[in-house]
Amino acid sequence: MHLPLRPISDCYGYDRGTPVDRIYIEAFLDHHCGNIHGHGAEIKTDGYLRRFGRDQIHFTTVIDIDPHNLDAHLCADLSQPHSLPAETFDCIVLTQTLQLLTDPAAALANCHQALHPGGALLLTVPCLSRISPNSRTRDRWRFTPAGLLELLGAWDGPVTVTGHGNLRVCLATLLGEAAEDLTPTELEHHDPDFPLLACAIAHRGKDPS
């Protein structure tokens, strides 16, 4: 098999259709949409909160480290402890962000303290990906499902981590193919030895009553 030296798309396949990882991210959020409710927080935009929370979301807070993001309500570095307000959110949607942070463990602890007791973090991280063309100096980490579970080990509520993908979709992602370039069978097969990304839903423990 002859493979190119450069990807056929330099922007994750957006110029060809839907990036492959978005298929799994959006399926994960749809599956856990019952946890997306009340006051939700999301990074850069509130698109996923509104799409998957539907009429369960009553208020959204957009968080970004970039002060020039006019859609952001809160400028914060997630790796800085307590940069998020304490016990404020019913849910936090954090997709494909942890790899860009200086201290992923600190960021997860920050998210934990920012949730109401019983609130949920809906988290996705890359297991495999090209270096971000827009954030080369900040793209620091990749995670296995086991590693992500270890990072979430200090959470005091239920935590579930799953891996998604297979060898074919991993190759497609590196090549810059889009989901539309693959068959449903190729997209739906999951091989634990070749995850493209890991998804986690982690709850903050409820206060004893």
Kindly report the name of the CATH homologous superfamily: Vaccinia Virus protein VP39
CATH architecture: 3-Layer(aba) Sandwich
Number of domains: 1
What shape does the CA trace take?
A: globular
> What is the spatial order of strands in the main beta sheet?
3-2-1-4-5-7-6
Order of helices and strands: HEHEEEHEHEHHE
CATH class category label? Alpha Beta
* Average pLDDT figure: 96
Q: In brief, what are we looking at here?
A:
The protein has 209 residues and is an alpha/beta fold.
Features:
24% helix, Rossmann fold, single chain, seven-stranded mixed beta sheet, alpha/beta, 7 strands, 209 residues
Could you explain how this protein is built, in words?
With 209 residues, the chain is α/β, with parallel strands linked by helices. It has a single domain, classed as Rossmann fold, CATH 3.40.50.150. The protein contains 6 helices and 7 strands. It has helices at residues 20-31, 47-53, 104-114, 145-151, 167-175, 184-188; strands at residues 38-43, 57-64, 74-75, 89-95, 115-126, 159-164, 197-203. Strands 3-2-1-4-5-7-6 form a 7-stranded mixed sheet, sandwiched between helices. Strand 4 (89-95), helix 3 (104-114) and strand 5 form a beta-alpha-beta unit. The longest helix has 12 residues, at 20-31. It starts with 19 loop residues before the first helix and ends in a 6-residue tail after the last strand.
